[in-house]
């Protein structure tokens, strides 16, 4: 008997049923009554027994039908006469999430038993790698790249470029009035006035920015240094800046900034 081929067929049929997301019976079929699944979400002790296994699927399948992928990438099977195991990598994510982590894969280990001549899944272990460190580094670099673009766009007096990474609902506390700039158009107008106020190339730099990223939220703080060309010589102005970014649709955008000069004394010089 070609046990490996039978097992491959069983597993790929199960994966196809999950990917369709429409037939819970097909997902649950070919499992033992005492099946044990360690899934990505809790409970940590796993889902034991066919009833618990069945109950774990409806919410995922609803997501799968809406925007999910559950696609086999690789599968290895080792089979004895009555016991077998397999390990696989799958693409398991939203169809619109390719740019967020293109290398992420669901890891799958399966244990099987042959009961009355029929192979059944007795154990499933699903997991993703803990990529929080990767996500933080990726987010930090993405936000740092925005700061570098702001430097270049300020020098080029490219107002559209400066606004490209600003959220429509941004709230900004600027050096000058009004008290609050409540949206993108208000921030755009403030930046336009600043760019139009000088004829030469303006140098804008966030000095030694500190960037902290957690999940879809990033906070940046540092000193803003602006060098303005003047006929009698360049003038440098230094102020304080705190900025908050959110990741929306895979892109980081500015949702809040707070700029200020300290009160008392002349702290505007570098």
Describe the structure.
This protein is α+β, with helices and mostly antiparallel strands and 270 residues long. It folds into 2 domains: 3-127, Nuclear Transport Factor 2, Chain: A (Roll); 132-260, Nuclear Transport Factor 2, Chain: A (Roll). The chain has 7 helices and 11 strands. The chain has helices at 3-20, 24-28, 50-55, 58-67, 132-156, 159-163, 184-196; strands at 31-38, 47-48, 68-79, 83-94, 106-115, 118-127, 166-173, 203-214, 217-228, 235-248, 251-260. The strands form 2 sheets. A 6-stranded mixed β-sheet has the order 2-1-6-5-4-3. A 5-stranded mixed β-sheet has the order 7-11-10-9-8. The protein is elongated, with a radius of gyration of 28 Å. The relative contact order is 0.10.
Keywords:
270 residues; alpha+beta; Nuclear Transport Factor 2, Chain: A; 2 domains; six-stranded mixed sheet; five-stranded mixed sheet
């Amino acid at each position: 008997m070609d046990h490996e081929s039978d097992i491959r067929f069983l597993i790929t049929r199960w994966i196809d049923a999950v990917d369709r997301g429409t037939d819970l019976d097909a997902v649950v079929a070919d499992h033992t009554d005492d099946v044990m699944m360690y899934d990505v979400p809790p409970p940590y002790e796993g889902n034991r027994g066919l009833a618990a296994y069945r109950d774990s699927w409806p919410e995922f399948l609803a997501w799968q039908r809406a925007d999910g992928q559950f696609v086999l990438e690789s599968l290895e099977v080792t089979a004895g006469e009555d016991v077998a195991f397999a390990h696989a990598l799958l693409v398991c994510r939203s169809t619109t999430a390719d740019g967020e982590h293109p290398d992420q894969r669901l890891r799958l280990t399966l244990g099987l038993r042959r009961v009355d001549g029929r192979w059944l899944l007795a154990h499933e272990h699903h997991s993703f790698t803990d990529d929080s460190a990767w996500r933080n580094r990726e987010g930090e670099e993405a936000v740092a790249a925005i700061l570098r673009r702001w430097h270049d766009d300020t020098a080029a007096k490219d107002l559209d470029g400066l606004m490209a990474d600003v959220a429509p609902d941004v709230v900004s506390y600027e050096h000058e009035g009004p008290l609050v700039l409540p949206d993108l158009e208000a921030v755009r107008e403030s930046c336009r006035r600043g760019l139009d106020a000088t004829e030469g190339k303006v140098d804008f730099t966030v000095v030694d920015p500190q960037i902290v990223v957690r999940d879809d939220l990033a906070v940046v703080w540092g000193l803003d240094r602006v060098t303005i060309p003047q006929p009698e010589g360049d003038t440098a102005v230094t102020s304080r800046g705190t900025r908050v970014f959110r990741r929306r649709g895979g892109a980081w955008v500015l949702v809040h900034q707070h700029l200020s000069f300290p009160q008392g004394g002349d702290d505007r010089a570098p």
